[in-house]
Amino acid sequence: MSDHLPALSSPANTTNSAVSVEVTLTNCDREPIRIPGQIQPHGLLLVLAEKTLDILQVSENVESFLGLEPSELLGQPLSHIVEEQQCRAIQQALQTSEPSSEQSKSISLGLVVLSSAARQTSVVEKEKPISSLRGLLHVSADAVILELVLEADTIAASTAKHEDAESDDLSAKLHQKVRQFQTADSLTALTDQIAQAVSDLTGFDRVMVYQFATDYSGTVIAETVASSLKGSSFLGLRYPATDIPSQARELYLQNWSRTIPDVEYEPVRIVPERHPLTHSPLDLSSAVLRSVSPMHIEYLQNMGVRAAMSISLIVENRLWGLIACHHCQTRSVSLEVRNACELLGQIASLELFRQQTLIEKHYLAEVRSIQQQIRQTLTRSPLAYAIDSALRRHQQSLLALVRATGAAVVFNDHNDRLTLIGDTPAAESVQALATWLVQKRQEVYCTHSLVQDFVLPEPEQNCACGLLSISIFLSQSSYHVLWFRPELVQSVEWGGDPSKPSTVAEDGSLNLTPRQSFERWKESVHGQSLPWQSNEVAAAQELRSTLLLAALEFSQASLKQAASRAHIASQAKSQFLAKMSHELRTPLNAILGFTQLLHYHESLSPEQRDRLNIINRSGEHLLSLINDVLETSRIEAGQLRLNESCFDLHQFIKSIREMLTLRASNRNLLFKVDQTPQVPKYVWGDEIKLKQVVINLVGNAIKFTNHGEVKLSVSRLSEADESPVAKPTETQEEELTSEIEGASTSDRIPETACIQFEVNDTGCGIKAENIETIFEPFKQTEAGRQAHEGTGLGLLISRQNARLMGGDIKVHSQLGQGSSFVCQVQLGLRTANDLTTPKQPLRRVVALAKDQRNYRILVVEDVVENRQLLVSLLTTVGFDVRTANNGKEAVDIWRQWHPDCIWMDLYMPKMNGYEAAQQIRAEQAATDSTSPPVIIALSASVIDHFRSDLVNLGFDDYISKPFKINVIFEKMADHMGVRYQYADKDSSATAIDTLPAVVLPTEPEQMAALRSQLLAQPRDWQTDFHRAVLGARESRIEQLTQQLSSKALADSLRACLEQLRFDLLQQLVEPLSR
């Protein structure tokens, strides 16, 4: 029934013993049906050059039509045989067709043959056309094909035209048939009318409507038979999918009709065999004259067919079926009738689509009604039980939804609930089937022969031969609805033995032979149910969507409840953290602040200074412990952020080496630092947090290593070497992209690099079971507990800081041999132009510089001690100061007094600092004030110190309690341009940024002089300073330097500190340890 006769695999579970060996390789698969290189002889074929219309290929039968040999035409222009007017018509057709499209155009052509004398003298003499021919022009990307066929029916075997095919009557007949199609009230009635219409138009002995199933096997569903063939009906016969293989079906989709006027024709070759320009065989897919497969010819001959025609039925771009026409004698169909049949096929396809749509519409109405009932139940039921309740209530509707006889609803969660409806397998079997579906992870599963995939106990197989299931897979559970159909034992009548005989070739392969017998061949099929239709599967999918929304709603509600509880807990933790931070750091601010103020008095005795140092050291130690605990709480509360800037990574590494070399040497350890050339010099990141991480890792290595060495290796990793944890997360990438897009040209981060800091030691090592616990809060190894140092929070904070920088810390250790800590972080790449020059530290301020206006300062603080501290500090140097106990008082004073700067505590009664700042900014904007006050936030909280957040709330800057006195003065210098006088009388009027540089004490004489001055200091001060230098505690060294009465000594020590020359400081303090 097609150009091919393909293989057929034997049906599964059949009782007929006549089934032969399954064939998997066929002659048909190897046949080039699109490029046969031959045509049927009832016309001739020309291949033309697209632009010149020169003849490139021609069929060998050209002599019988035109009286010319192929060699006389090849290379000649088409005008050699066709009138100029017709050539222009062809050129016009080529110009209107798209180069990449596949089009066919019907053109009436008159042909001219030159006389013998004219050809000899090269004189063109127009003669009468030898015959009236019809031309079909096929335009494709590879070739221009012109087919020419006689207009009259001249094949000898056809002695008369069918009376209904007369041109005058053809249009009326066609319209009559179309009107009949529209009156059909069923698919059977419509296909009967289609078969009869084509029979009336063409006069073929047998016309059949052949419908494809989903597996492309087909059944004859309508038939008209001439009286001479009565008793020989193919109606109801089924043919395997391999009778019309996929490549033949593709051609039927491409061409609406196919004709074979004489099955016993002699094929005509095309010369030359290959296209002279493309050197490829000629693709004849669209050619009407394309030669037929020899196997199909034999197939038709075995059926007793002499002429054949087929018309495609195409619904929604799918080959729905064919109108197959057979005739016992030769029969040609004129182009008009052929075109009429194609139009009839197209109209019939539309009617089939309409019939199909009506059936589906009726079914969809039922489905929507059932879906609506289920949805209403879902909305009225408690979320936790909505799905279960809805499906239990509508059991019969659930079966009707997909026309099933049984169903099961399975909830695979901690309870494993199961509901059976109708005729189903046992509960244990259904549960096993649901488990199997979970393993398959298929949202929709459909089969009409379950036994081929899943074997149920034999007594249960009959009720569940067909299975359609939908599944919803959630993180902790899954929902399944399973529909079952029983076995449907079928007696199928095939048009001949569907197994087809095969022969064995010399190489052992199987070759197919065309079917010899087409008698009815029956088989019984077991183990299969009625197949599930596509609209039934679609209905199941729609129900899945409905249930999925309900499941997601339930999950969303659960997540909201969990999120609400987590939010409440997080808020409570944040509030507790802010409260504890405020309560602990606020009194420390007063203690450390007044200690610094007392140091300003030069009348203090050495004993008094020693006692102040003890207070200060104790306060600093307490502050360090509080900061560690609060830092951990900030990590847990998700409040940790980066304070990024551009810094010199090479200088950073150098400072680490100088800072920790002496500490290692004091323990008789060798400290090595290796740096690969690929490490970038200028980077973008949080320098303070990175330094905290590296110092913690190296410091731990030194602390727990008794002999040998500690080595720090710094390198830049390639992308392939990065561990997954060192790559930015999706959120970090989005933040980075946002930062790049929002930054100015000079602030953009072009790319990032993964920098690795690896610390190796030869210390005591860590037990395998302690490898991960060392990163838990307050957890220490045995060696750590014996050392009586630290809080057990250092590694936790270091890992979280590393992760915040897009990396992580990993550890490898072997007990008794040492440990290796590897930290990877992501740093942005920058240039020297991005580096900000650090400010010189402020010297001790003693007064405001001369020739400045009077600055008004408002201190807003509810804690008396902290308010007094700021008032004492600011009034001492000459500022005009007023105070407020809360935000409300601050707003009132601002309205009347208009201060230049407001130091605003954040947490106060009546009105807090946030509200006060926002109200001041709002009123300031309303009055269009030209001199807005500088508002600087003060808070002991570790939560609210992010400058970018505070700026949006109306603040200009922020400092954290406890604060350094010089930071207070520095902030006002930055924001207001205030100038100061300093303790050094020679530079009392010198601006901060013009202070003369101090020469480093590198000469032996300088070192000796400084050592003598250090040894003259109080003993407690010496001990404290010695420890601060060995611990590389920069802030503590600065504090102790401020206590010195000798400016020269203080300046020299500051110069070493500012340039990170800890090696010089360590040499200076060496005598202090004796």
Structure description:
With 1074 residues, this protein is an alpha+beta fold. The chain folds into six domains: 38-150, PAS domain (Beta-Lactamase, 2-Layer Sandwich), CATH 3.30.450.20; 162-268 and 284-359, Beta-Lactamase (2-Layer Sandwich), CATH 3.30.450.40; 364-489 and 528-557, 2-Layer Sandwich (Beta-Lactamase); 641-834, Histidine kinase-like ATPase, C-terminal domain (Heat Shock Protein 90, 2-Layer Sandwich), CATH 3.30.565.10; 844-993, 3-Layer(aba) Sandwich (Rossmann fold), CATH 3.40.50.2300; 1004-1073, no CATH class. It is 41% helix and 20% strand. The chain has 31 helices and 36 strands. A seven-stranded antiparallel sheet has the order 1-11-3-2-6-5-4, covered by helices on one side.
What characteristics describe this protein?
Beta-Lactamase; 36 strands; 41% helix; alpha+beta; 1074 residues; 7-stranded antiparallel beta sheet; 6 domains
Which helices and strands occur, and which strands form pairs?
Blueprint: H1 27-30, E1 38-39, E2 43-48, E3 55-59, H2 62-66, H3 70-73, H4 84-96, E4 103-110, H5 116-121, E5 132-139, E6 144-150, H6 167-183, H7 187-202, E7 206-212, E8 218-225, E9 238-239, H8 246-254, E10 257-260, E11 268-271, H9 294-303, E12 307-315, E13 318-327, H10 335-380, H11 386-393, H12 395-402, E14 406-412, E15 417-422, H13 427-440, E16 444-447, H14 458-461, E17 466-473, E18 478-485, E19 490-495, E20 502-504, E21 510-512, E22 520-525, H15 534-599, H16 606-636, E23 645-648, H17 649-666, E24 670-675, E25 682-685, H18 687-703, E26 709-717, H19 730-742, E27 752-761, H20 782-787, H21 794-804, E28 808-814, E29 818-829, E30 845-848, E31 856-860, H22 864-877, E32 880-884, H23 887-897, E33 901-905, H24 913-927, E34 934-939, H25 947-952, E35 957-960, H26 965-976, E36 980-982, H27 1004-1015, H28 1019-1030, H29 1034-1042, H30 1047-1058, H31 1062-1069
Parallel strand pairs: 24-26, 31-32, 31-33, 33-34, 34-35
Antiparallel strand pairs: 1-11, 2-3, 2-6, 3-11, 4-5, 5-6, 7-8, 7-13, 8-9, 10-12, 12-13, 14-15, 14-18, 16-17, 17-18, 19-22, 20-21, 23-25, 25-29, 26-27, 27-29, 28-29, 30-36
Helix pairs in contact: 6-7, 6-10, 7-10, 10-11, 10-12, 10-15, 15-16, 15-22, 16-21, 16-28, 17-18, 18-21, 23-24, 28-29, 28-31, 29-30
